Structures are given as C-alpha cells and as structure tokens.
Amino acid sequence: MSYSNLYERPGPRGIRRNRLLAVVVAAALLALAYLVYVRFDEKDQWAAAKWTPLLRADVWATFILPGLAGTLGAAVAGVVLAGLFGLVFGTARMSEHRWIRVPAATVVEFFRSVPLLLLIFFAFFGSYAVLGMNISAFTAVVFGLTLYNGSVIAEIIRAGVLSLPRGQGEAAYAMGMRKGQVMRLVLLPQALKAMMPALVSQFIVLLKDSALGLIVGYDELVDRGLNGIAANFSNVIPAAILIAGIFILINLSLDRLAHRLGRH
Fold it and tell me: pTM for the complete prediction?
C-alpha cells in the first residue's frame, strides 16, 4: 500500500481507528439511504407508473437525448474556448512585461469574481444594448462558461508552471531558447501532468455549470430532460434521479479519460 508524502504512515492504532471510522461512516450512509428509500416509498415515488415513462423511446427522443446534445454541445465549446482563454491569459500573467501582466491579471480576477449566472444573463439580455443584436441562448451560455472557467483555468496553468523547479527554465535559457520556446517546449509539457487533476475537475464543473443555461431558455439536459419530463408525467423525483445518473456517468468517463491521458 502506498501513502502520500503529505502525511505519515498510520500505526496499528491509527489503522484500527481509520477502519472503525470507515465502518461508522458506511453505516451512517446506509441508514441515510434507507431513510430516503422509505420516505420516497411513502410518497409512491417508486411506483411503476412514475418510472415507466423513462423507459419509453419517445421520451428519450423528445426530452433526454436533445437535452443531452445541448449540454454536451455547450460543454465541448466551453472546454475548447475556456482552455484557449486560460492558456493565453495564464501565460500572459507570467509575462515579464508589466503592460501585459497587469491587464491579464485584471481580466482574470474580474471574470473569476463575477458569478457565472450573471455572465450568462448579461450576455443574453445585454447583447442588444452592446452589440445592437440579440445573441442565441447557446452563445450566451458558451460566453459565460468560457470567461468564468477560462479565468480559473488561467490560474491553474499559472500555478502549475510556477510549481516547477526554477532550474528547468534556467537550463532551457542556457541552451539558447527564447521565452516562448521555454514555455511551449519545456515548462508547459512538464506542468501538464501536475495540472491534469485540477483541469479535469474544472472541466467537470464546466459541464455541470451548463445547466445554468435554463435561465435563458437554453435546451440542455436539466431543462429539457428534468423539467420537460416532470411537466408531462408528474414524476420529478424519478426524472431527477435519471438526469443525475447521466451526469455522473459523463463525469466518471471524463475522470477515466484524465487518468489515461496522465499515464501517456
């Protein structure tokens, strides 16, 4: 068994204590699960009539699959654009030139501090006042996801690069590399593995944040799948459980992909 360098290997008493705590927590979770099951059963939430619609092909074709496509479409666009945003502004924050570093830091701190919901709301309802035209709900959602999550990714990239030993960059400069080459060929590739868990966590947050698109009427999984099914079949709890399960499967797949990328 391997242990992290952040804490000492537990002794026999510590192992017994950890096992006891694990048993207590597991028992508490099982008791909570049983309580939820009983309360739902009292409200007929496990009745077949409430779950049968979720097995129908027309329900999936009308509500779940279109909503899933909307969620994945906004998430993929958000991941790509937020990644580019974070790469540009993360490296800009590490620039030696103050006229680049200070504006980049200002942009990152501003959009990292503004709630994502407000960014989406402003993009959708304020676009006419700023641009003289109304943008689509998809564009508003991607706009908010890009700026908010891109600012967080910029900080992740900056922290990952700065965590490397200074000798890595100094050795590259000694070989005659320019700053752009040092960042692109030496620092970023090494920092990527260290950044991977935080990046994947942020991409998972981005995927879940796409559900905020319902505030501007965007057809995503929560709005189309949960609200649409519940409105037609009065089964909000079963529909919520199904939608939550879909999100969990997607996020677990992203986590598995991150582990494979980290190994390679």
Answer: 0.82
Tokens of 224: 């189309």
Q: How many CA atoms lie within 13 A of 138 on its CB side?
A: 11
Strand, helix or coil at 191?
helix
Say if CB 45 and CB 237 are below 8 A apart: yes
Structure tokens at 149: 């999550």
Say which residues have a Cβ less than 8 Å from residue 46's Cβ, sequence separation at least 6: 37, 40
DSSP state of 215: G
Instruction: Specify the 3-state DSSP secondary structure of 46.
Output: coil
Q: How many residues does the chain have?
A: 264
Q: What is the pLDDT of residues 174-212, one digit of tens each?
A: 777 777 777 777 777 777 777 888 888 899 899 999 999
Contacts of 173 (CB under 8 A, 6+ apart): 182
- Residue-level pLDDT at 248: 92
d(CA 144, CA 77): 11
**Residue 235 and residue 51 in contact, taking contact as beta carbons nearer than 8 Å:** yes
| The pLDDT of residue 262 | 64
